[in-house]
Amino acid sequence: MKTRFNARTTGVRLVEAEGFRDGANGVPPEHAQNEIAATCERRKAEVREEMAQPIKTLEAQAQTLRPRADEAQARWEAIRQEYGSQAPHLVKPICLLLVSLGAIAAEAFLLAPMLDMIGIADPDWQLWTALGIITAAGILIHFCLEHREQHNGWWPVLVSGLTVIGLALLGLMRAEQVAFAATVSGSLFGEFLKAHPLLRQAVFVFLTLLFPLAATLIPHTSMEQLHNWWRFRKARKQAIKLGQAASKVEKELEGKREELDAQLHQLDDQAQEWQSAYATYYKLGRARGAKRPPRWTIWAKATAAALVVFAVAALLSVALLGGLPIGLAIAGLAATASWLLAAVYFYRRWEHPSALRYLKWARLQFREGDEDLRAGRISSQPVADPAAEQNLLPERSLAERVTLRR
Q1: Are 298 and 348 in contact (CB under 8 A)?
Q2: I need a labelling partner for 199 at 20 to 30 A (CA). Which of 59, 214, 247, 248 fits?
Q3: Is 54 in a helix, a strand, or coil?
Q4: Per-residue DSSP letters for 90-154?
Q5: Which residues in 342-365 are b (16+ Cβ under 10 Å) and which e?
Q6: Sign of CA dihedral 304, 309, 310, 315
Q7: Cα separation of 79 and 71, whole Å?
Q8: φ/ψ (deg, to 5) at 362
C-alpha cells in the first residue's frame, strides 16, 4: 500500500520511497520522522481551528438554553403541584363569560325604555346608552373588588356602595315608570301595581341589581380561571420547547466534539502508519540499497525515442510535402533534436533520481530452496536489531553498498 502525505513545498510525497532512499543513503531517520509528526500536528491544528467556530457557537447556545430550560421545568413542576394532575378548565369560564354577556344584554333591554325621561327617544340609542350604563357600573364594581383583594382600603367599598345605590335608584325609577304607563293605559295590571307599591319597587330593584352584579361577579371569577389555564398551558409549552431545544443543542455539541476527537485520532493513527511505513522501508534501504542501471541505458532510451520521432516525422513529411528527400531531411532533423532532448532528460533522471526511482532500483534477492537455512548461514528467528540484520546479509562489495552518488 502506498502511503502519501502532503508537504507545503514539495506537494504529494511517497513515504515508502523516501524511507528507502534515506536508508540507502544513510540519512538519519529522525528528520523525516519529525517532519511526519509536524505535518500531522499541523493538520490537527487546522482541524481544531475549523471545528472551533461551530463548537463555540453550540457551547454558547447550550449555556444560554440549559438554564432557561431548567427554570421553565421548575416553574412547570411548581404549577403542576399547585393544580395537581387536572389542568384548569377552559370551557367552563368561557360559558360563564357568555352568561355574563347575556345578563348585560338583558339589563340593557330592561333599562332602555326608561331613558325617555332624559330625552333619548330613539330605541337604538336607548339600547346603546343602557349598555354603556351597565358596562360602566360593572367595570367600577369589578375594579373595586380587585383593589379590595390587593389593598385593604375604604374607598373601594364606598365606590361600590354608591354604584349599587345608583342602580337601585334606576330600578325604582323604572318601577314608577312602568306603573305610570300601566295606569295611563287603564289596564288592570296598572291598578295592581298601584295597589302594591313595595312589591313593584322590590321587583324592579332586584332585577336592576341582579343582572349587573351577575355580569360583574361571573367575569371576576372566570377571568381568573382563564388566566390560570393560560399560565398552565404557557408553562407546559415553554418547559417542553426549551427542554427539547437545549437537548438538541447539547446533542449537536456532543456530536461535534466526538467528530473532532475522531478526526484527531485518525490523524494520530495516520501519523503512526506513515512513521511505521517509513521505518520499514528505511531498514529495507539500509539492508539492500539501490543499484543504478548502467549509463548506456540513457543512450538506448534516447535512441529509441529518436527512432520513433524519425518514423512519425518521415511519414508525415512524405504525406504532406510529397517528396521523399525533403521528408527524410525533416525527419532527420526532428530525430536529432528529439535524441538530444531525450538524452538530456534521461541523463538528468539517471544522475539525480527521485525517491520513487530509488525504490524502483532496489536490489532484489532471490533464494531457491533452503540451502542457506540448512547450512546455518541465515537464522530462521526474527532479528530485532537492524545492525544484526545487516550482519546476516551476504557480503557485498563496497561499490554495491554505496548508493547512487556521482
Answers
A1: no
A2: 214
A3: helix
A4: SHHHHHHHHHHHHHHHHHHHHHGGGGGGGT---HHHHHHHHHHHHHHHHHHHHHHHHHHHHS--S
A5: bbeebeeebeebebbbbbebbeee
A6: positive
A7: 12
A8: -65, 145
The pLDDT score that the predictor gives to residue 262 is 92
Instruction: Kindly report the backbone phi and psi dihedral angles of residue 14, in degrees, each rounded to the nearest multiple of 5, phi listed first.
Output: -100, 115
What does the domain layout of the chain look like in residue ranges?
A: 1-290, 291-363+384-401
In the block, which residue shows the cell 531517520?
29
Average pLDDT for the chain: 75
**Mind giving me the DSSP string for 189-223?**
HHHHHHH-HHHHHHHHHHHHHHHHHHHHHHHHHHH
Instruction: For residue 5, give the nearest of 37, 30, 50, 47 by alpha carbon.
Output: 37
Each residue of 303-354: pLDDT tens digit? 888 888 888 887 777 677 655 676 677 777 888 888 888 888 888 877 777 7
- The answer to pTM > 0.90 is no
Could you give the CA distance from residue 311 to residue 335 in angstroms, rounded to a whole number? 9
Question: Helix, strand, or coil here: 11?
Answer: strand
pLDDT in tens, 48-107: 999 999 999 999 998 998 899 889 888 888 888 877 767 777 788 888 778 888 887 887
131, 108 Cβ separation under 8 angstroms: yes
Q: Which residue has the higher pLDDT, 200 or 386?
A: 200
At 2 the three-state DSSP class reads coil
CA atoms in the 13 A half-sphere facing the CB of 229: 13
Residue 130 contacts residue 111 (beta carbons within 8 Å): yes
Closest CA to 177 of 111, 127, 133, 108: 111
pLDDT interval class at 365 (50, 70, 90): low
3-state secondary structure of 7: strand
Separation between Cα atoms, residue 99 and residue 90, nearest integer Å: 15
Under a CB-based contact definition with an 8 Å cutoff, are residues 127 and 112 in contact? yes
